[in-house]
Amino acid sequence: MMPQREVESICHLLLQVSLGSVVMVRGLTQSVVAASFSSTYSSTSPRMSSIHESVSDAQHTISGIQQDPSTTTGMMVSLVSLRRLIVANVSLILLFSSVKSNPILLVGALHAEVTEGRKNDVIDDYLHRAQLLCSQSDKEAQRLVTAGIVPTVILLLRARALDASGLETALITLGMLAYA
Amino acid sequence: MLNTMLLRRISNPEKIIRCDPITANTIYRTNTTTTLIQIINSSDSDITIALSIWCISRICRSSEVAAGLIKQDLPTTLIRKGLTGGFKSSCLSSWCLGILALTDQLAEILAARGVVNASVDHLRRITVSDVFGTEDKCAALYVIARIARSIALAKSLVKAGCVPLIVHHLSTSEEPQILHWGARAIGCLMRPNASDIAKILLNAGSAKALARIPRILPVQEVDPMVSFAFTIQRFSVAEWGAGTRKTLVDDGVVDSLLSVLRASVDVPDPRLQIELALAVSFLCDVGGLSIRKEIVRAGGIEILQRVSAAGTPEVARPCNLAVTSITGNLWTRNAGM
Predict the structure, then answer these.
(1) Which CATH superfamily is B207-337 part of?
(2) Total of domains in chain A
(3) Which of A39, B9, B55, B323 is least surrounded, with the fewest CB atoms within 10 Å of its CB?
(4) For residue A86, which of A14, A167, A7, A166 has the smallest C-alpha distance?
């Protein structure tokens, strides 16, 4: 799952630019759907609700444009600079989606965050990603285990057991991994 | 919602055996279970306790791990804190206590820790109250089925008063999973030469309750039907005499069995036909003279031949065995085995 800021800015840009560049928007639809899925998946966390809203707004606009391409004429010129920004964001999305599908990078990021960063919301985001991978297939779960996620989750469990906050996410991840 | 989804998965304990236990063993070896047990002991939140028990259940997949968990005093924690706690944690404690009984020896140790009385008391509490759902009832029946691993343990469960409770669920519920685990529990209580337990079960009305399962459920509900066949097999081996079998005929179990067998031709799961054919075969074995006549009269041989012809070789074998049991004399029956 990508950081909230990124998703929000991308969705915002999409809303602005979508009138001008149908092709670009069509290319991005898939990424928005993926982001929407990620945010739905963790819809229990209140801070994700704003992302969810912007994603659904963007989706709404995209579907409207796809149905009626005539609205896009005459607005292309003024939006060139924004398009450049969009291209930059596309590469950002690609970067993040590669992190999402790569268990080794995910485990590395989680370990760094648990041992050094210690930002609970970032850790929870990584754990949700790990759960998503586990629920997709046993093979993905085994890749996570091979990459060494178990000691990190156990470390986190012990750390969180002390103040009993955020235990559920760690426990669910550990239980899902135990079946790998 | 995610939690409910995850908690539901545990109701398929067969998956615990099927999976590769390497990760689970790694988690166990790093002494994480101690932390999990401490969380159960110290937490007040139902969902946190439930999730810790859920994790432990998923880690416990070999007898060594189970023995280690018992040594860490997990049964006492589950009985004192889990079973008496909230809905989720009491349900998962039941599953977990059942999962711990991986071998006969471990079941004996668990019984020594007071699991027999605790599980029957838990089943009683769930039976008398209306607030508990299907999952809770299944879990309470599951732990009894798992603990009854020897005649001595089955007797202590019967003495603690589990029979009327199980028969109550079996004869009143319409939930396939409750009927599945209820029938399993009745079957697991019996072993060869356990004729006194079989008598207690029959006197409590378990045969009538069993015969009811195929009448209220469609044959596509494979799990309850397989458990139904399993329990008939256990009734047959519990006593070599004719008394048990006569009661089974009188209470309509044989008619139900043949009707399921006839309908099972269309079910793609071979487990069902195999278990049903074995049940017929066991019933007709030593001591089943009167039942053989009854089955022949009800057209059992034609049904078996039809199922055998429609099924794979692994289905055909028990069907032919059952036909031999019905038609053969003492010597051919034994050769058929």
Answers:
(1) Leucine-rich Repeat Variant (1.25.10.10)
(2) 2
(3) B9
(4) A14
